[in-house]
Amino acid sequence: MFEGKNGKINSEIMEDEIGDNHIATTATTPLRDDAFEVSDTDKMLAIEENMAQILHTLGMDLTDDSIKGTPRRVAKMFVQEIFSGLNPKNMPKASTFDNNYKYGEMLVEKNITVYSTCEHHLLPIVGRAHVAYISNGNVIGLSKMNRIVDYYSKRPQVQERLTMQIVQELQRALNTDDVACVIDAKHLCVNSRGIRDVASSTVTSEFGGKFKEAATKREFLDYIKLETSFE
Ligand SMILES: Nc1nc2c(ncn2[C@@H]2O[C@H](COP(=O)(O)OP(=O)(O)OP(=O)(O)O)[C@@H](O)[C@H]2O)c(=O)[nH]1
Ligand SMILES: [Zn+2]
């Protein structure tokens, strides 16, 4: 289930396999069919070579002490850090438990830090995700929600797809449609170059199941407005 198949990975494949269970798979990362045929080590070697070529083309002296390690550093950072969510081996285990205490209200995990990378310019996307679900018999470890956000963030992304992938993965893990996500993030490609609007941020949302209903949506949006401070 962790093999690439028609450019889809991990949960995207599983989503297809459970067929008409609940949601349509729409938010898939565009990957080549042979994306998993090259090892991480070989990917890093190829990226290092290409990055050295880019810096050389820009006129940089790659024998300089300060930048001679840069191609390798960038390759390692791409594969093992900022794009590590492309490798299904890094998919967090979404441990779920029975809802023994019969908690029946929504659970909101808010202010989850998002560090992602815009796939159009390869510049950072930095912001907050707010995720909620209503249990259908299962509950999930709180930190797993943060980990799922982090995993899908560590891909070249557009914010719309990131928002939908988080919801889809939680719907799969919790076996319910009743999941929602709002992301508010700054795109450095908008803030620091191009239009250079440093003030603007982008809000995206995905509301599944009961969260499409006005009262439930309102309750979620009200919770995420709470200013929590424990200092
Ligand atoms: N929908 C969407 N667009 C994004 C996201 N991140 C970056 N973009 C936009 O992608 C677009 C790419 O447009 P292009 O015209 O091809 O690129 P560009 O010439 O660099 O555009 P400017 O940024 O306007 O200078 C830009 O408008 C970006 O702001 C995202 O997460 N979602
Ligand atoms: Zn961009």
Automatic annotation (TrEMBL):
Protein name: GTP cyclohydrolase 1
InterPro entries xrefs: GTP-CH-I_C/QueF, GTP-CH-I_N, GTP_CycHdrlase_I, GTP_CycHdrlase_I_CS, GTP_CycHdrlase_I_dom
Lineage: Bacteria, Pseudomonadati, Bacteroidota, Flavobacteriia, Flavobacteriales
Residues annotated as transmembrane: none
Chain residues that bind Zn(2+): 118, 121, 189
Pathway assignment: Cofactor biosynthesis; 7,8-dihydroneopterin triphosphate biosynthesis; 7,8-dihydroneopterin triphosphate from GTP: step 1/1
Subunit-level organization: Homopolymer.
Signal sequence interval, chain numbering: none
Domain (GTP cyclohydrolase I) ranges: 47-224
